[in-house]
Design brief:
The chain is of the alpha/beta class. The chain contains 10 helices and 15 strands. Strands 2-1-4-5-6-7 form a 6-stranded antiparallel β-sheet. The model has no long low-confidence stretch (mean pLDDT 94). Bound molecules: adenosine-5'-triphosphate (ATP) and magnesium ion.
Length: 363
C-alpha cells in the first residue's frame, strides 16, 4: 500500500492543499505550521479516529462547515481513491462507492503512527503495554475483541462473587467462577504470548538497526508464570492454580488481583527494564521499534504494507539513529515530521515537504 497523493480542504489550519508523496516523506517546518495536521489527515484514511484523540468536529477548520480529504493510493496492484468528509462525524467512500462506516477504509489503507505521546508505552503503567498488545491483536485477529469481552464479563462476575464470599465466608461459591475466569483468561494470555513471540524478531532486528548494533531489545510477557511454550490448556491450569494460591489475599481485598488484567509486558534494553533505566533516546528507539514491528507483523498477516507515520520522532535522536530511520526503513512508506530541516539533510532518497501556515512552501 502506498499513498501517492492527498488533497485537503478546510481541515484544521489547512485551507487548501494538494500534495504528492514518495516512499520517504519528510514534512518539516516551524512549530504550529500544520505538520501534525497533515499527518493526522493522512492517518484518518485508515478509518481510525484521530491519533490525537480529537473529536471529528474539532478537525474541521475554524469557521468552516466541513472538511474534505481525498487520497490516491496504490493497493491490491491498482490505483484507488478514497474520500472522507468530516462534519460532526466522518463519512467515507472508496473508489466512488459510499462506505457504511469510515472504519471500512482500514481494510485497504493501513498505517502505524508514532507520536511522543506513545512514549507512555514505556514510561507508563502496565495498562499502557497491555493496551498496545490488545489493540494490535484486535487488528490481526478478528475474534480477539470477543475474547476481551468474555474475559471482562468473567472478571466482573468473579469480583462480584468475591465480595459475596468475603462477606459470607463461603469460599466454595468461587469455584465455578474460577473455572470460567481461568478459561477466558487463558485465551488472552495465550494470544498475547503468541503475539509477543511473533513481534519479537521484527522488533529486535529494527532496534538492532536503530542502535547501530550496540543494543539488544527483549520482550517478555509477565503473567506470574512462564507462558512461553505452554499450550492453552497448560496456561488454563497454571492460571487456575494461581487463583487458588492467591485466594486468601483476594478474599481479603475482595477483588481479583490475578489474571491478564494485571499482567505486564517487560520491555528490556540490554537486559534492563527500559522503563527504569532507558535513556530518552533509548526509550524512543524502543517504542519506534515496537511500532514498526507491529507494522511488519500486520503486513505478514494481512498482505497490506502499512505506512509508518512518525510525528516529532527524529529531533531527540542522535545522528546515527536518525540516519537509520530516514534511510533504512525499507519496504514501507514513511512520513516523518520534524521542525529542523537541517536534521534531515542525511535523506538519500525521498521528498522534503516544507509546511508554512497550513500550506506547502514551494520556494
Ligand atoms: P509542532 O512543530 O509544534 O508540532 P505542527 O506544525 O505540527 O507544530 P500542528 O499541530 O499541525 O502544528 O498545528 C498547526 C496549527 O493548527 C495550530 O496553530 C493550531 O492552532 C491549528 N489548528 C488546530 N485545529 C484547528 C482547527 N480546527 N481549525 C484551524 N486551525 C486549527
Ligand atoms: Mg506537530
Amino acid at each position: 500500500m502506498k499513498i501517492n497523493r492527498i488533497k485537503i480542504c478546510d481541515f484544521r489550519n489547512i485551507e487548501s492543499l494538494d500534495c504528492r508523496f514518495d516512499d520517504v516523506n519528510i514534512i518539516c517546518g516551524s512549530n504550529a505550521q500544520g505538520k501534525t495536521n497533515l499527518l493526522e489527515a493522512l492517518y484518518l484514511f485508515t478509518g481510525a479516529r484521530s491519533f490525537r484523540g480529537a473529536k471529528d468536529g474539532e478537525m474541521v477548520a475554524f469557521g468552516k462547515k466541513r472538511a474534505v480529504l481525498e487520497a490516491e493510493f496504490e493497493g491490491g496492484c491498482r490505483e484507488q481513491s478514497a474520500r472522507l468528509t468530516i462534519e460532526k462525524k466522518r463519512e467515507a467512500s472508496l473508489n466512488g462507492i459510499e462506505k457504511r462506516s469510515p472504519a471500512e477504509l482500514g481494510e485497504s489503507i493501513k498505517a502505524v503512527v508514532f507520536s511522543p505521546a506513545h512514549l507512555i508505552m514505556i514510561k507508563g503503567a502496565p495498562e499502557q503495554r497491555r493496551r498496545f498488545a490488545d489493540a494490535a491483536l484486535c487488528q490481526i485477529k478478528s475474534g480477539y475483541q470477543n475474547v476481551l469481552k468474555q474475559y471482562k464479563n468473567a472478571l466482573r462476575q468473579r469480583n462480584a462473587v468475591l465480595k459475596d464470599a468475603a462477606f459470607s465466608g463461603c469460599e466454595e461459591l468461587l469455584e465455578p467462577f474460577d473455572e470460567i475466569f481461568a478459561k477466558h483468561g487463558a485465551v488472552m494470555i495465550y494470544q498475547r504470548q503468541k503475539y509477543i513471540e511473533a513481534l519479537l524478531p521484527f522488533a529486535k532486528e529494527i532496534y538492532h538497526g536503530i542502535s547501530g548494533g550496540r543494543e539488544e531489545l527483549e520482550l517478555h510477557l509477565s503473567c506470574g508464570f512462564e507462558a512461553g511454550g505452554l499450550s492453552l490448556e497448560e496456561i488454563r491450569e497454571k492460571l487456575f492454580e494461581r487463583l487458588k494460591e492467591n485466594r486468601r489475599e483476594e478474599l481479603a481485598a475482595a477483588v481479583t488481583k490475578t489474571g491478564p488484567h494485571r499482567d505486564d509486558i517487560d520491555i528490556m534494553i540490554n537486559g534492563r527494564f527500559a522503563r527504569l533505566y532507558g535513556s530518552q533516546g533509548q526509550q524512543r528507539s524502543a517504542v519506534l521499534a515496537l511500532k514498526l514491528a507491529e507494522a511488519s507483523l500486520l503486513y505478514e498477516k494481512t498482505g497490506i504494507k502499512p505506512a509508518a507515520m512518525l510525528d516529532d520522532v527524529v529531533s531527540e535522536l542522535d545522528d546515527m539513529r536518525r540516519e537509520y530511520i530516514i534511510n533504512h526503513l525499507k519496504d514501507r512508506q514513511v512520513f516523518i515530521t520534524c521542525c529542523d530541516a537541517e536534521s534531515v539533510l542525511c535523506l538519500k532518497k525521498g521528498k522534503i515537504i516544507r509546511m508554512c501556515a497550513g500550506k506547502i512552501d514551494e520556494s
